[in-house]
Amino acid sequence: MAPGVVGLVRYGQGDCMPLINEQGRVYSPYTGELYFIRKAALDQLGTGNFEQLRATSLHYSLQEGHLAAEVPAGTYVVMPTGVYRYEPANTITVITGQVLQQDFKFWKCLVY
Predict the structure, then answer these.
(1) For the chain, which terminus, N or C, has the lower number of CB atoms within 10 Å?
(2) What is the rounded CA–CA span in Å between residue 7 and residue 18?
(3) Backbone angles phi, psi at 62, to 5 degrees
């Protein structure tokens, strides 16, 4: 495999008012699109169109949470469809000639 990322992606959703602590959350293997958005492009977006940036970003269709993606070297913010999270837990750096082993968990708040 060329440089990239392998791992398991888990997804959960629920009430965030009051916030459910991490131990009380239920996650399932994610099935859907997973986007690799270049961090530099996101940092420079300002008031630009995030949906357009995401649509033109590298993305893969996942089944049952299995991630095995060829991703060029660089720093990316990883997000599934319908969730906007920009934090260290979903920011990765892919190094030329290496495959990064990284699992992800995403939580979507349905009620605030």
Answers:
(1) C
(2) 31
(3) -105, 145
Query: Is residue 40 classed as helix, strand or coil in its secondary structure?
Result: helix
**What is the pLDDT at residue 70?**
95
pLDDT digits (tens, 9 = 90+) for 37-89: 999 999 999 888 999 999 999 999 999 999 999 999 999 999 999 899 899 99
Residues in Cβ contact with 89 at an 8 Å cutoff, skipping those fewer than 6 apart = 104, 105
One of 2.60.40.1120, 2.30.30.140, 3.30.70.270, 3.30.70.360 is the CATH number of 4-111, namely: 2.60.40.1120
